[in-house]
Amino acid sequence: SALAQGSVTSTLTGTVLDTSGGAIPGATVVATNTATGVVSETTSTSQGTFTIAALLPGRYTVTVSLTGFKTAVFNGVVLNAGVPAAIAARLEVGGLEETIVVEGAAALVQ
Questions:
Q1: Which of 82, 88, 81, 40 is nearest to 60 (CA)?
Q2: Which helix (H) or strand (E) holds 4?
Q3: Which residues contact 107 (CB under 8 A, 6 or more apart)?
Q4: How does pLDDT run across 38-96, given as a tens digit for each residue?
Q5: Are residues 81 and 8 in contact, defined by beta-carbon separation less than 8 angstroms?
Q6: How far apart are CA 103 and CA 110, in angstroms?
Q7: Residue 62 to residue 73: CA distance in whole angstroms
Q8: What pairing do the DSSP bridges indicate for beta strands 10-18 and 58-65?
Q9: Which pTM was predicted?
Q10: Contacts of 46 (CB under 8 A, 6+ apart)
Q11: Side-chain half-sphere of 70: how many Cα atoms within 13 Å?
């Protein structure tokens, strides 16, 4: 359709795994547009996957958190119009207040 061809939004997808590669369901994934401050939130599925659709292009900070694990923070995730981006979060056992920061390009999965 013409609408899909001229998409002005983007989609962020990804996986949430533990350090042994097991899926982590129920993790909270929050994408914050660093320019506008607009926050979009979702939860990982039983397979540890997530999708946040209809995001405006720009730079985002993405946090992935779940009780019992350290919070993963992805800085500088860039979304381009019509081009989905993906991240792979590996959560380490620890406290929510402990954070693991992953800088932009390293977070992206091709």
A1: 40
A2: helix 2-5
A3: 62, 74, 77, 87, 88
A4: 999 999 999 999 999 999 999 999 999 999 999 999 999 999 998 889 999 999 999 88
A5: yes
A6: 16
A7: 6
A8: unpaired
A9: 0.86
A10: 23, 25
A11: 15
DSSP 23: B
CA distance 8 to 81: 5
Q: Within its chain, how far is the Cα of 7 from the centroid?
A: 20
Q: Rounded to whole angstroms, what are the CA distances from 29 to 93, 96, 110?
A: 17, 13, 20
Q: Strands, E, within 1-110: which ranges?
A: 10-18, 28-33, 39-43, 49-55, 58-65, 71-79, 85-91, 99-103
- In one-letter notation, the amino acid at residue 8 is V
Residue 24 contacts residue 91 (beta carbons within 8 Å): yes
C-alpha–C-alpha distance, residues 50 and 84, integer Å: 13
